[in-house]
Recover the amino acids of this structure.
């Protein structure tokens, strides 16, 4: 079987320990089917019950199942059938987003939903652009190096082998990467469109280097996943199956190793026994409350829903919610500044073609004292479709005839964006609102306000992007302020006084409860978070599976199936 | 040719109220108001190359104008006039923006967030109607639809600057909520894609010609003869 599978991956390096690309049905390569999936009884205490089937949850499930763990994943959204559920259309892709009610506040509120919140098996990566950069070594020690935020309790070196392995699994295509820890990618860079070429030239004239990639899109067929067709709809979910998301990169292998993914199940409480250990999760399915027993639980609901679930899981022992004895759950939630600058060029560039993620620069990633603020930003291509571009034009102050005129000019524009590292602040937090959802659970409220360092970083990044676009020959420039990505809210730290989970992502105070998503990040760097979320889960699975961390809070033996 | 950018509003272009002089009439397919930069381009001729799920969703927008069920008659009249002004739809054929927004609100399709200092999106929309009518009444008109085009433009300009009154609630956010829904409706419609030359759904066919100035065989060149200097002179803008 192994040899036959290996022969199927012609011309590509076979990722170790993950046959997902070969397990997909070549006639329906954009997602596995749940038929024939193993099922577990509610009363059977599975080895690991995971809440959330995105980048963190799916990767953890696949890795643990490979080690013989019995794993169930609860996912609030549907198990997608890409042929019928996904459309090659901007407005029609709304069901991909988490559109349940949430409240946003603070002086710089973050709009949730389509830009940053996924729902359904595969999570937000189903509609992420596809950029898959690593964090830099400096990201793990910003307190020591730059005097801001916090150091991570783990180092870059602990994630490095997982980065490397995941880059083969997704797989990632791009040029040799010179920034951070220099490394190469398993797939060569994709061809870039006319707009990205103009931007590369403009950047070069400004002394700024841009490189092609790194994107989680196979360059060539990969197992049963076909080649990218450059249709430009990466953010609307890849019907082709070329772009990596857990649906195609980890779930097929997870299902083949006995994982049950229970879709349309909304977790509402993590249950705790008298000894302070969690016993399983209460959830709603078809409007009915149910319970799944488990030896251990990992929450992977991302930076809004994970804090919400921990805060809502109150008990006599934990009256303020789990791991919240020090009032830290939900604090330090972060978004990256994501201002975008569009330039108008004489030629038609038709930016709807080619994947939106094309080229990137991490030249401004680290602190440079002369800029007057700590940390930095990266620059990437964006390629908005008509509705996204109309929001740009509106943000520049146009409506009526003037908006229509800019929109008629759509094919002459190209857009780049920054990802600014905004700093974690305790007053930026997720709490429970008074309003409740259809299950009677309080909805999340997210408050967000920028600090002076954040504003200076965003302003500097926009200035560099305007220079690039002008140097590339733009005749007119539009810009828009926005945010991207969500991380933090349950930071990992060396002590319970400074974080929600320890360096093994175990919730302080509950020995068999883990957090396995982007909420554990103490800082966010200027990199898109998907690859790092996966790498953290891969590391966690290795530590759990290698018996270095027992779910009972002590080292224990596990028998691999 | 369109290589010039002088027609763009920031560069002194079309602020006089109408579309640029000599913007071509659409010869093929439909665009809103039958003008556009790509007069021989009709994305709806490509539907045979779209996947079935996408075809159903996109053609439904063209073939079915939903009835007004969320707004009452007065709100619909006010907000319909507002949608015409903000999207510069001054003639038929019009993309039925208000009907599309009404259906979204009627079906309870949400965005996934609500500002802490704002009511829900459906309530915000009703408030927008009340604000516009109140602003028209200040100018002596019986509601926004009766205010006349010039007054409507002035009121919308004030709305866009956050200058209308809504006790306790931020008007600039109401502008954002309304415009987000309007833009999403308008630019999801294939008639708008024809107007701007957008290639539309490209699965399973994909795109192959990615370089500057290249087109797929079904994409057509823009046809927009405009000398911006002459246009500005002819329209008496200098």
């Amino acid at each position: 079987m192994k040899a036959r599978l290996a022969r199927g991956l012609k011309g590509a390096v076979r990722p170790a320990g993950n046959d997902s690309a070969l397990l997909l049905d070549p006639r329906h390569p954009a997602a596995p089917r749940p038929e024939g999936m193993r099922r577990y009884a509610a009363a059977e205490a599975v080895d690991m019950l995971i809440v959330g089937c995105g980048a963190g949850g799916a990767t953890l499930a696949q890795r643990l199942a490979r080690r013989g763990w019995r794993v169930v994943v609860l996912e609030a959204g549907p198990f997608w059938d890409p042929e019928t559920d996904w459309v090659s259309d901007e407005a029609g892709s709304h069901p991909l987003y988490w559109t349940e009610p949430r409240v946003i506040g603070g002086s710089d509120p973050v709009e949730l939903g389509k830009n940053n919140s996924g729902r359904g098996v595969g999570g937000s990566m189903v509609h992420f652009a596809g950029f898959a950069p690593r964090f830099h070594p400096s990201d793990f020690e910003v307190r020591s190096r730059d005097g801001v935020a916090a150091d991570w309790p783990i180092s870059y070196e602990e994630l490095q082998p997982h980065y490397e392995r995941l880059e083969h699994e997704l797989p990632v295509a791009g040029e040799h990467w010179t920034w951070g820890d220099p490394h190469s990618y398993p797939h060569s860079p994709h061809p870039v469109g006319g707009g990205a070429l103009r931007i590369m030239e403009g950047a070069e004239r400004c002394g700024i280097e841009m490189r092609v990639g790194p994107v989680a899109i196979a360059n060539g067929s990969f197992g049963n996943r076909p080649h990218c067709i450059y249709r430009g709809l990466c953010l609307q979910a890849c019907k082709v199956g070329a772009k990596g998301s857990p649906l195609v990169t980890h779930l097929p292998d997870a299902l083949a190793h006995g994982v049950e993914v229970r879709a349309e199940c909304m977790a509402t409480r993590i249950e705790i026994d008298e000894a302070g250990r969690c016993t399983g999760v209460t959830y709603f399915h078809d409007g009915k409350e149910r319970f799944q027993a488990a030896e251990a639980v990992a929450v992977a609901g991302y930076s809004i829903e994970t804090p919400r679930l921990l805060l809502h899981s109150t008990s006599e022992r934990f009256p303020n919610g789990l791991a919240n004895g020090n009032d830290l759950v939900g604090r330090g939630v972060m978004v990256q500044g994501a201002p975008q600058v569009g330039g108008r060029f004489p030629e038609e560039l038709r930016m709807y073609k080619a994947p939106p993620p094309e080229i990137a620069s991490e030249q401004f990633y680290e602190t440079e004292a002369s800029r007057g603020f700590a940390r930095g930003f990266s620059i990437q291509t964006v390629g908005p479709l008509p509705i996204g571009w109309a929001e740009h034009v509106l943000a520049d102050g146009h409506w009526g005839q003037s908006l229509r005129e800019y929109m008629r000019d759509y094919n002459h524009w190209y857009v780049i964006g920054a990802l600014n590292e905004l700093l974690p602040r305790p007053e930026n937090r997720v709490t429970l609102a008074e309003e409740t959802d259809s299950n009677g659970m309080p909805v999340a409220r997210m408050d967000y306000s920028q600090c002076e360092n954040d504003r200076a970083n965003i302003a500097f990044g926009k200035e560099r992007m305007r220079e690039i676009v002008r140097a590339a020959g733009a005749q007119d420039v539009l810009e828009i302020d926005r945010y991207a990505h969500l991380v933090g809210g349950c930071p990992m730290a060396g002590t319970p006084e400074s974080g929600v989970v320890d360096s093994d992502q175990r919730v302080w105070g509950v020995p068999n409860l883990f957090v396995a998503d982007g909420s554990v990040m103490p800082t966010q760097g200027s990199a898109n978070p998907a690859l790092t979320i996966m790498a953290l889960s891969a590391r966690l699975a290795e530590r759990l599976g290698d018996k270095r961390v027992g779910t009972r809070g002590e080292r224990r033996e596990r028998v691999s199936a | 040719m369109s290589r010039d950018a002088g027609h763009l509003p920031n560069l002194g272009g079309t602020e006089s109220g109408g579309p640029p002089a000599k913007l071509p009439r659409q010869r093929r397919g439909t665009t809103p108001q039958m003008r556009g930069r790509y007069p021989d381009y009709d994305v709806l001729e490509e539907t045979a190359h779209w996947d079935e799920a996408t075809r159903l969703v996109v053609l439904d927008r063209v073939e079915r104008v939903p009835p007004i069920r969320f707004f009452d008659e007065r709100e619909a009249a006010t907000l319909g006039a507002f949608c015409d002004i903000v999207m510069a739809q001054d003639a038929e054929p019009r993309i039925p923006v208000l009907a599309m927004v009404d259906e979204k609100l009627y079906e309870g399709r949400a965005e996934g967030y609500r500002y802490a200092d704002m009511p829900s999106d459906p309530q915000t929309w009703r408030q927008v109607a009340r604000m516009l009518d109140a602003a028209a009444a200040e100018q002596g008109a019986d509601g926004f639809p009766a205010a006349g085009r010039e007054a409507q433009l002035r009121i919308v300009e004030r709305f866009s600057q956050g200058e209308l009154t809504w006790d306790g609630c931020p008007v600039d956010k109401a502008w954002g909520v309304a415009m987000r829904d309007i833009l999403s409706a308008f630019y999801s419609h294939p008639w708008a894609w024809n107007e701007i030359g957008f290639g539309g759904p490209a699965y399973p066919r994909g795109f192959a010609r990615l370089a500057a100035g290249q087109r797929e065989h079904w994409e057509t060149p823009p046809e927009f003869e405009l000398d911006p200097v002459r246009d500005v002179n002819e329209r008496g803008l200098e």
Observations:
- Chain B touches chain A through 73 residues (CB under 8 Å).
